[in-house]
Specification:
By secondary structure, the protein is mainly alpha-helical. The chain contains 18 helices and no strands.
Length: 302
């Protein structure tokens, strides 16, 4: 059966759609017992840490046969919660083969996990929502509920999932930006790249987080600035603010944002000059590199 699973998974993995469909037809012609054994074999391949190629083939196979086998659908949903980005990307690509009924069944399974599942199932469901396109609107109320969980790990994942809903989630995300839990505001900062770049809602939330009273939240927001905003205009005020706060991690990240923003001029060099005189060596090194990128080795350089 191992050879059969490998052979069929290779045929399913072909980029040739007619051949893929032929392989699916062969799978459906197998006996119940043979299909079960194949699915179990692919599921085992997913858990192997020594072969990404085998795992990718197994992801594709499970995703393609999911419309015909509930057990394959369940295993495939587990993939969406997998820590490997490569596997999630592969799983995401398979949705093009799904019909409306398959997508509906996936959403039903995820909804059940969010409302009634154990902690591992809820975590998997939250991660799955982040790769479903578009994000299923019917799941948003359940996810909002999880953001208020006392379990900060669940709430953290729920906030990041909620960012994938875009404009409909705005009032809830605004509420989260003022959540008293620091980790939850950090989760919001880390989730903002789910929005399209320069999205007005994301920029509004980013502004709130950059002005947060907590250093760790501001630092998390700075780390995502380049992914949320393309104009670079927010980098200079962020550096000025970071220097006023005096936290080394925040200043270092702000200097990097200025460096990557393309902003220049006397104001920028003056701010970098302040960073150049900061007590933390890593900040000074970052400032030197940023000044060199601007073509100046001194704050007064032209």
């Amino acid at each position: 059966m191992k050879n059969s699973a490998l052979n069929l998974s290779r045929r399913l993995a072909t980029a040739n759609r007619p051949k893929t469909l032929a392989a699916l037809k062969d799978f459906r012609a197998l006996s119940d017992h043979e299909r079960t054994e194949l699915i179990e074999s692919w599921s085992r391949d997913l858990k192997r840490s020594d072969s990404l190629k085998s795992a990718l083939a197994a992801v594709r196979a499970l995703g393609l046969v999911a419309p015909y086998e509930p057990s394959a659908l369940s295993a495939w949903i587990d993939v969406l919660g997998h820590t490997s980005g490569d596997l999630v990307i592969e799983a995401d690509a398979l949705m093009a083969f799904w019909d409306a009924d398959t997508r509906r069944r996936v959403i039903e399974v995820l909804g059940t996990e969010l409302q009634c599942g154990e902690r591992p199932g809820v975590l998997t469901a939250l991660r799955a929502v982040r790769v479903l396109r578009p994000a299923p609107a019917g799941l948003m109320p359940s996810i909002v509920g999880v953001t208020r969980s006392k379990d900060e790990r669940l709430a953290f994942e729920a906030v990041q999932a909620l960012c994938h809903f875009g404009a409909p989630a705005r009032p809830f995300l605004q509420e989260i930006s003022a959540d008293p839990r620091i980790k939850i505001r950090i989760a919001l900062a880390e989730g903002l790249p789910a929005f399209p770049k320069d999205d007005p809602i994301a920029l509004e939330l980013l502004g709130r987080l950059l002005a947060d009273a907590e250093t760790r939240v501001r630092h998390a927001a700075l780390c995502k600035l380049q992914l949320v905003s393309s104009d670079g205009l927010r980098a200079v005020p962020a550096l000025r603010q970071a220097l006023a706060h005096g936290d080394a991690d925040e200043i270092r990240e702000a200097v990097f944002c200025v460096q990557e923003s393309g902003q220049s001029g006397k104001d920028v060099r003056d701010l970098l000059g302040q960073a150049l005189n900061y007590e933390d060596e890593s900040v000074r090194q970052r400032a030197v590199f940023a000044l060199e990128r601007l073509g100046a080795t001194h704050p007064d350089g032209k």
